[in-house]
Structure formats: structure tokens, C-alpha cells
Design a protein that fits this description.
Strand content: 5-15%
Largest sheet: 3 strands, mixed
Strand order of the largest sheet: 8-1-9
Number of strands: 9
CATH topology of the largest domain: Alpha-Beta Plaits
CATH architecture of the largest domain: 2-Layer Sandwich
Order of helices and strands: EHEEHEEHEEHHEHEHH
Radius of gyration: 19 Å
Helix content: 25-40%
Structural class: alpha+beta
Number of helices: 8
């Protein structure tokens, strides 16, 4: 099967939440409205001023989560989806620390916690269907098909209305490309997207750096840097999760 991609046109999203509802139904998740990605919300629609932005796993072409997982719990499939195997996972959460889009979420509340994120409805895709979120979208804001077909549609859409769309497809080149693509009528940095990620797949940075370091220095230096980096990212993840919990509690109390 050829690689697939999801194309999201931000100009067409009206914030109806049907994609998020369909996702929860498809994955048997709690029927509660959520505004941020969580272990029980694989896709959400964020309100950014006058725009609505759908967030989900970007399914990177060369996923950092795959490269940092010490037990191979993540896999990039031929269909384009990045999948997680809970039976291999040891709970190190390196995937959460390494993800440039801060997508994976952890089941902190569970006695047997897992990492959770969008699976691109892989069973549906392999059965020749589109993901549940795409099927539920009535405005055409979400499209799904072969990767290069989605890229072509994105380029053609921008070319047909250059005064409307920003001349950039987010996800085409970011961190080596992703299987989720966005087009927009406003600069992406104004609606919450990270625009400083570069175009080189993040796993390449690691190997390029290591190849230039003498082996005698490699073990100690890499170990110390790794400890520092992981500790720093762990603090960021914990702080981020804390803020999400506080926001969720405020929403429930409100």
C-alpha cells in the first residue's frame, strides 16, 4: 500500500468538533469534550483567534519517537502511520521528551499506564477506508489519500488562490516531512505552530554528531549530555502536563 497523508485546510474548519467526536467513538474514548491533546483525546480542535486548528500526531516521515525508543515500541508503517506497541513499552517516556510537536500523552492516572496518540485509524486505512475524523468532516477541512496526491492538491489549492493562502504547506518539509499536512490563510506561527524546527529529520542530527566524536570521548560525553537532555525534557514534560491538568480542572469547575 502506498503511503497516505492527511491534508487539513484551516480556512475550512468551522470548529464543529465532529472530527474529535468521531475519533473518540472510533477509539472507545470517554465522551467528554477536551480542548488539549490528552491520553483520552487523540485529536482536538483549538481556537486560535478567529481560526480553528486541529491537532493530532503529525506521523513524521522519520519519527524521533521511533529513533529514541530503546525497546522499539514505535513503528513507522508503510501506510504512513506511526504506531505504538503497548506490549513493548517500558514506560521510559523518551518519546514524549523527544517529540518536536509534543504529541504523545501518558496515562498518569492508570496503574498500568500507556502512551496514547493518534493511530491514523490504521485498521480502517488498511481496509480501504478513510480515518474516522475525515469521514466525519462535512466542510472538506480534512482530506485523506495518497501522500503525493495530497501534496499536489495542497500546491494546486495555494496556486489557485495565492491571495488567500500562505505560500507554505506545513509538514511538507518540517523535520524531514510529515504525513499530516496543513494549508492556511495566515502565517502558521500566528496560530500556534512551531516554525523553527528546520527541515532535517531530527534523528539525523544525532548520528551526524556522533560520527564526528572520537570513540574515547563518545561514551562519557554522550552519557552526560544524554542525562542532561533527558532530565531537562522530563522537567518540561512534567510542567506541561501539570498546566494541562490545571486547565482541565478549571474547565471542569467552570
Amino acid at each position: 500500500m502506498k503511503k497516505k497523508a492527511l491534508l487539513i485546510d484551516i480556512t475550512k474548519c468551522v470548529g464543529c468538533q465532529q472530527c474529535a467526536i468521531a475519533c473518540k467513538e472510533q477509539n472507545n474514548l470517554p465522551d467528554i469534550e477536551e480542548t488539549k491533546l490528552s491520553a483520552t483525546a487523540y485529536t482536538v480542535v483549538e481556537e486560535r483567534g478567529e481560526h480553528y486548528v486541529r491537532r493530532l500526531c503529525m506521523h513524521c516521515n522519520e519519527p524521533t519517537c521511533v529513533s529514541v525508543c530503546p525497546v522499539g515500541a514505535f513503528e513507522k508503517t508503510p501506510e504512513g502511520a506511526v504506531l505504538y506497541d503497548e506490549y513493548k513499552c517500558i514506560g521510559c517516556r523518551y518519546c514524549m521528551m523527544a517529540c518536536p510537536f509534543q504529541v504523545p500523552r501518558y496515562e498518569w492516572y492508570s496503574t498500568t499506564p500507556r502512551v496514547q496518540k493518534c493511530r491514523m485509524c490504521i485498521e480502517r486505512v488498511r481496509d480501504g477506508k478513510v480515518p474516522a475524523c475525515v469521514q466525519a468532516c462535512e466542510t472538506g477541512a480534512s482530506q485523506f489519500g495518497e501522500y503525493y496526491q495530497m501534496l499536489q492538491i495542497a500546491h494546486q489549492t495555494i496556486k489557485a488562490e495565492p491571495d488567500k493562502y500562505v505560500n507554505h504547506i506545513y509538514g511538507e518539509k518540517e523535520v524531514g516531512g510529515t504525513s499530516v499536512l496543513y494549508i492556511s490563510d495566515v502565517p502558521f506561527e500566528k496560530i500556534g505552530f512551531k516554525t523553527n524546527l528546520g527541515t532535517v529529520p531530527l534523528p539525523e542530527y544525532t548520528w551526524k554528531a556522533l560520527s564526528k566524536i572520537p570513540s574515547v570521548v563518545l561514551v562519557g560525553g554522550t552519557l552526560l549530555y544524554g542525562i542532561w537532555w533527558i532530565t531537562s525534557r522530563r522537567k518540561e514534560v512534567i510542567e506541561y502536563e501539570r498546566k494541562l491538568k490545571e486547565q482541565k480542572n478549571e474547565e471542569e469547575e467552570g
